[in-house]
């Protein structure tokens, strides 16, 4: 059989090519019975619509770019799943870009995407210490942009965040209620807004409960596992904290490894709580107490905000901030129940 195109399918059904096209785009203005007849005939003739050509005619890529600092963190993987579900439901695909917390990569990606590769961008930012004005250089031609998790406060665009201050306050308070009085706060780049917000919750909880604060108990870590191993072992040895609050997931792992190497028992000698969306947190030994962000929901909400702009329901420069609640899940790493040690 000859190759079937949209014109031949239309002739076979005695319909217009525009009616055929609307059926495959699932337009609401086409009769259900007509749509069913078109899809049945298309299947019979083995016709496949050329969405790429259609997108070119509409001057749309039908693609969303998702820019994240890393993929190793389970949080970002879950957020991407939430974004992808909404994108797929709207007939879009996603492209994932990883900056590795490199501001220059972020700028390169954004400029590349403005050459027509994507219709919109969902981003967790990398370069808060840098000049963000490059995003305003595009003027009215700037692609619709939605921030999630990490944001630039000085860029007017929709964003989805979590209640990081309150979560950090409650996490620190939980350690205090468990008897901790020397609580170390482990952070990667405390100059980032998310790091500062979480740190302020930690500090205010100490103040409320009149627990003494020591500057050195705020331990600045890095993105390198090898460096963190040294930093955390030195902190545990020199500072002798009885509680550790880690602001990101990978620092909790590094703390567990450091404690194992140093012979420090969790939770008898040291209690640990961390921001983490790790699904295996209950399976760690001991199970890890976490502040769990609704990562998939965050991705879902960010994508919905973007599609409001793409569907012309909202101006792309409208400041719409969605704040979602995180949940503290208490497990054995902050338990007060003393384990029986071998004699």
- As a percent range, the share of helical residues equals 40-55%
H-E string: HHHHEHEHEEEHEHEHEHEEHEE
- Poorly predicted regions are none
Q: So what's the oligomer here?
A: single chain
Biggest sheet: strand arrangement: 2-1-3-4-5-11
Structural class: alpha/beta
Overall mean pLDDT stands at 88
What characteristic shape results from the CA principal axes? Answer: elongated
Number of strands: 12
Largest sheet: 6 strands, parallel
Proportion of residues in β-strands: 15-25%
Distance between the termini: 83 Å
Please tally the helical runs, counting DSSP H or I stretches of 4 or more residues. 11
Give the radius of gyration: 25 Å
Question: What is the topology?
Answer:
Layout: H1 6-13, H2 17-24, H3 32-44, H4 51-57, E1 63-68, H5 74-89, E2 93-98, H6 103-113, E3 120-123, E4 145-148, E5 159-162, H7 164-177, E6 183-188, H8 193-208, E7 218-221, H9 225-239, E8 243-246, H10 249-262, E9 271-275, E10 289-292, H11 295-310, E11 321-324, E12 327-329
Parallel strand pairs: 1-2, 1-3, 3-4, 4-5, 5-11, 6-7, 6-8, 8-9, 9-10
Antiparallel strand pairs: 10-12
Helix pairs in contact: 1-2, 5-11, 7-8, 9-10
């Amino acid at each position: 059989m000859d190759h079937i195109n949209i014109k031949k399918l239309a002739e076979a059904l005695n319909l217009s090519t525009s009616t055929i096209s609307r059926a495959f785009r699932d337009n609401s203005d086409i009769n259900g019975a007509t749509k069913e007849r078109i899809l049945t005939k298309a299947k019979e003739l083995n016709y496949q619509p050329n969405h790429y050509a259609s997108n070119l005619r509409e001057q749309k890529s039908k693609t969303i770019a998702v820019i994240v600092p890393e993929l190793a963190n389970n949080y970002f993987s879950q957020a991407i799943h939430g974004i992808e579900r909404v994108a797929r439901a709207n007939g879009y695909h996603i492209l994932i870009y990883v900056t590795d917390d490199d501001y220059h990569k972020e700028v390169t990606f954004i400029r590349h995407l403005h050459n027509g590769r994507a219709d919109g961008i969902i981003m967790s930012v990398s370069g808060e210490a840098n000049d963000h004005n490059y995003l305003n250089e595009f003027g009215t031609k700037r692609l619709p942009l939605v921030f999630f998790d990490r944001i630039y406060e000085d860029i007017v665009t929709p964003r989805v965040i979590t209640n990081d201050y309150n979560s950090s306050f409650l996490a620190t308070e939980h350690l205090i209620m468990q008897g901790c009085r020397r609580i170390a706060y482990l952070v990667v780049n405390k100059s980032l807004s998310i790091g500062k917000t979480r740190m302020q919750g930690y500090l205010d909880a100490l103040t409320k409960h009149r627990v003494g604060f020591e500057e050195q108990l705020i331990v600045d870590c890095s993105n390198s596992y090898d460096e963190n191993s040294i930093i955390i072992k030195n902190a545990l040895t020199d500072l002798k904290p009885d509680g550790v609050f880690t602001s990101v997931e990978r620092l909790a792992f590094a703390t567990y490894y450091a404690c194992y190497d140093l012979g420090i028992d969790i939770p008898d000698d040291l209690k640990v709580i961390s921001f983490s969306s790790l699904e295996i947190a209950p399976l760690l030994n001991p199970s890890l107490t976490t502040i769990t962000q609704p990562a998939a929901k965050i991705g879902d909400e960010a994508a919905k905000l973007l599609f409001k702009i793409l569907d012309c329901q909202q101006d792309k420069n409208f400041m719409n901030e969605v704040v979602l609640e995180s949940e503290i899940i208490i497990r054995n790493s902050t338990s007060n129940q003393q384990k029986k040690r071998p004699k």
